[in-house]
Amino acid sequence: MLALLATVGLAALLPASGTAADVAGGASTGAVALLFFLYGARLSTREAVAGLKSWRLHLTVLACTFLVFPLLGLATRGLVPFVLTPELYSGLLFLCLVPSTIQSSIAFTSMARGNVPAAICAGSFSSIAGIVVTPLLAALLLGGGGGGFSPDSLLRIVAQLLLPFVAGQLLRRWVGGFLARHRALLGRVDRGSILLVVYTAFSQGMVAGIWNQVTPGRLGALFAVEVVLLAAMLTITWYGARRLGFDRADRVAIQFAGSKKSLAAGLPMASVLFGAEASLAVMPLMLFHMLQLLVCAVIAKRRALDPLPDEPLRGQPQPAEPELTGPRAARTTGA
């Protein structure tokens, strides 16, 4: 997060323009393609197929991600223009269309002693579905004017995201071992690609003068709206999963996988869909990303203290063993 904020500051002070902007744009496009190639190459097809056994859980997470979230996003339309500007509303609605996270969902589910394999598969399925579902929902809900979506942007989505992902899956047999041995290096490649996308998008916004349209008051209002949005999704996923009959471990996975949005997947998509307005469009996603990490970390720590089935409450005194007397005591002690 510090690196993201520093990158935004760099783009504000030294935005890429002219030839430098062309070079940064080309590098950003290549970085996005590489990012999704690595996603495809690292996803084990065998693990994904095995995860289909929990199909009810995965459908629940997908419904939260691509149905409940967009409905809540559409409900915020009434806040325009009094609370949100039309541009910020488009970014907020785009946030609601982005797939779920993988890494943080797994980490928080593990911390809360939930169903980690289900969180892995749910996050992976959401990311795969998002490559197709997010652009289609953007075409339906944002339209040509709201989000800059067009048939040409759909083709760019396919070329920059879907095809590299499929290529990674096809080449996994040969490159999977190499990727597994160099996880740390690939993690830096992931983060570097995301930072490059952020720098390019915010540079375009600075050159176009987009940030002159946003006041601190508007950003504060956006943050307040996102607090309510996250609280609503955390409540819906937790209590809704209970009403659907899921046990505690599955409810933990559903809450963390169904209430969060992926910055890593959303930023490249926004750069394709929104073009020069991507910097303003991704601001809601960046704010929500920071908020969800902070809030979910607190919730995961609290969930870790929940008693599991047949497990006493932590910190509670354990019942003393009954004292044995008479013949039974003699048999137990061997006297």
UniProtKB/TrEMBL annotation:
Residues 1-20 form the signal peptide. The keyword Ribonucleoprotein does not apply. It comes from the Bacteria. InterPro entries: Na+/solute_symporter_sf, Put_Na-Bile_cotransptr. Pfam families: SBF_like. Keywords: Membrane, Signal, Transmembrane, Transmembrane helix. Residues 309-335 are annotated as: Disordered. This is Bile acid:sodium symporter. It comes from Streptomyces niveus. The lineage of its organism: Bacteria, Bacillati, Actinomycetota, Actinomycetes, Kitasatosporales.
